[in-house]
Design a protein that fits this description.
heterodimer, A: 164 residues, mainly alpha, Four Helix Bundle (Hemerythrin (Met), subunit A), 6 helices, 80% helix, B: 409 residues, two-stranded antiparallel ribbon, two-stranded antiparallel sheet, 67% helix
Chain lengths: 164, 409
């Protein structure tokens, strides 16, 4: 149990540190690397929750495929360091209060959840259960999502070929 | 120390296993370079490394020392942090994959604890393996980008494109095996291949019913060679066009780390090929009384090797060779005698012996391919990945699942 708590603190700390660094870094590649740190530590948290399949898929899909494309594009564009600008007036007027409000709401929800002490795993643990849920109970939304992604891919191809 | 072992027995056992495995794997990596240079040399009718130690056996040691003592310059304008991070990523990720590979069926005892042969046995072993290898591309891509140099950048771009193109075919090609085993656990995948076809042939996935995974294996192996950036798919470091590709600007031990990562990946991929398609540690001979003599094959092989080393060593040119080689041969002979006389040790060694023999065979195929096949052109490489391997592995998934469903009805 102690080991699990330590691991949770490590992964949670890494995730938060990665997210903060993602915003503060000025170089696109460093931002992308920070995002990878966030994703891998999230996978660690999933593992601690007992959702091994989700953890592995998180790494394979997000850290191993999508972020590789991000890095690839950044390398191709040879994007340099960004300049730091002052916050726009709208961001200062609306953004800061909204961010505070969001933090407050999240904090209230989390403290409530902790008070209830509902530590039961929400995710189906075994890969087989997950597959049954995806391909039996929720097959229609699942297929719909893949259809949406297909539309996005077709759109990308059409946009890329417009110049011919 | 003793209280620590008592307090965290699992942790202590795991640390011991990790240290031992790291030592074995790193030594194996070093001698894999020797093996490769020797085999390629003999393919090209040369002798290969011969000067450092008898038969060049100390060459890996000399190489390692040289890597350690070389100057370690970084190119001007390199992105320092990423430049230093990349080789670490390449090597640690490659070495991490060994954590999930099982080496034998029996348990062993450390500190009085029964523990499987292999560091851990995860129920998503295969997925974790693919997850870690899918991160391996960062080492190469970031190295190419951060060197601030044109050839590394081109090499890095090529290899990222190549690695995620072939990762698709690699992952799809093992789905057939997963369907037949019904598990991601590598141990269960091997155990599902037990039994015999017509009482003789081993029921390995490569020839098992309902659908022999020949297609899956071919796709897997070609994709794996491409995924590990090895010849004939070593476009990322094509020396005739890109100097050395992504690691052009790396010297000294950072270069050695890329090298170790590449060779570690070769071993992992060969281990997976043996586990998924060739029955892992399962012997090719049936476990009947008539074939009981095959249990002494490891001992016989060791004895033959020992005898050869002994008599070859006596006639060796140098004094060092004339002393070391016969001693080595005698040691191997003693090991063989121990195995032949000690039934318990002989039974324990069977699984790891067949497993390592298969892995060695695949490593030989790697080197053989490098020694014989010319490098592909980049568009040919992409065409093979997307237009040949991907459809073939998809067809393999479809056929396997259809036949499995038909069989279950």
């Amino acid at each position: 149990m102690i080991i699990q708590t330590i691991l949770f603190l490590v992964f949670a700390g890494l995730a938060v540190a990665g997210a903060v660094s993602l915003i503060l870094q000025r170089h696109p590649i460093h931002c992308a690397l920070s995002l990878i740190v966030v994703m891998v530590s999230l996978a660690g948290l999933y593992l601690l929750l007992g959702a091994e399949f989700v953890a592995a898929v998180q790494i394979i899909v997000y850290a191993g495929a999508i972020m590789v494309l991000f890095v690839f594009v950044i390398m191709l564009l040879n994007a340099g360091e960004e300049e730091r600008t002052n916050l726009s007036r709208l961001a200062r007027a609306a953004g800061v209060p909204l961010a505070l409000a969001l933090t407050a709401v999240l904090g209230v929800i989390i403290t409530k959840a902790v008070r209830v002490g509902a530590a039961k795993p929400l995710l189906p643990t075994a890969t087989r259960n997950l597959a049954l849920l995806l391909f039996k109970d929720y097959v229609f939304p699942f297929e719909l999502t893949s259809f949406l992604i297909l539309v996005a891919i077709l759109g990308a191809v059409v946009l890329a070929q417009r110049e011919r | 120390m003793n209280t620590l072992v008592a307090g965290f027995p699992l942790l202590a056992v795991t640390v011991v296993k990790v240290v031992v495995l790291l030592f074995v794997v790193l030594t194996a990596l070093a001698y894999l370079t020797w093996f490769e240079r020797k085999v390629v040399a003999h393919i090209q009718t040369r002798w290969g490394p011969y000067r450092v130690g008898p038969h060049g056996l100390l060459q890996p040691l000399a190489d390692g020392l040289k890597f350690l003592f070389k100057e370690d310059p970084a190119p001007a304008g390199a992105e320092r942090f990423v430049y230093y991070l990349a080789p670490f990523l390449a090597m640690t990720l490659a070495l991490t994959t060994f954590a999930v590979i099982p080496f034998g069926p029996q348990d062993m005892r450390i500190f009085g604890q029964r523990t499987p042969l292999g560091i851990t046995d995860l129920n998503i072993g295969l997925l974790i393996l693919f997850a870690i290898t899918s991160l391996g591309v960062y080492g190469v891509a970031l190295a190419g980008w951060s060197s601030n140099s044109k050839y590394p950048l081109l090499g890095g771009l090529r290899s990222s494109a190549q690695m995620f193109s072939y990762e698709l075919a690699l992952t799809l090609s093992v789905v057939g095996v997963l369907l037949m085993a019904g598990s991601f656990r590598l141990r269960e995948i091997i155990e599902a291949q037990q039994g015999r076809l017509w009482g003789v042939l081993p029921r390995w996935n490569i020839i098992a019913s309902p659908f022999p995974q020949v297609l899956g294996f071919l796709c897997y192996f070609v994709a794996a060679v491409a995924e590990t950036n090895r010849a004939p798919f070593d476009l990322p470091e094509a020396e005739s066009e890109l100097v050395a590709g992504f690691h052009t600007e790396y010297a000294s031990f950072k270069f050695a780390m890329f090298f170790m990562g590449e060779y570690a990946n070769m071993i992992t991929v060969s281990c997976l090929a043996a586990i998924m398609f060739f029955g892992g540690w399962i012997s090719p001979f049936p476990p009947t009384q008539a074939w009981a003599w095959t249990a002494f094959l490891p001992a016989a092989l060791l004895a033959a090797l020992g005898l050869y080393l002994f008599f070859d060593g006596l006639r060796y040119e140098t004094l060092l060779g004339r002393t070391v080689l016969p001693l080595l041969g005698a040691a191997l002979g003693a090991l063989a005698a121990f195995l032949a006389l000690h039934p318990g040790a002989n039974a324990f060694i069977q699984g790891p012996f067949w497993f390592l023999l298969k892995v060695l065979l695949f490593l030989f195929f790697y080197v053989w391919a490098r020694g014989t096949l010319p490098r592909l052109r980049y568009d040919q490489l992409m065409a093979i990945g997307w237009k040949l391997l991907l459809p073939l592995s998809l067809a393999n998934v479809l056929l396997t699942s259809l036949l499995l469903a038909w069989k279950q009805k």
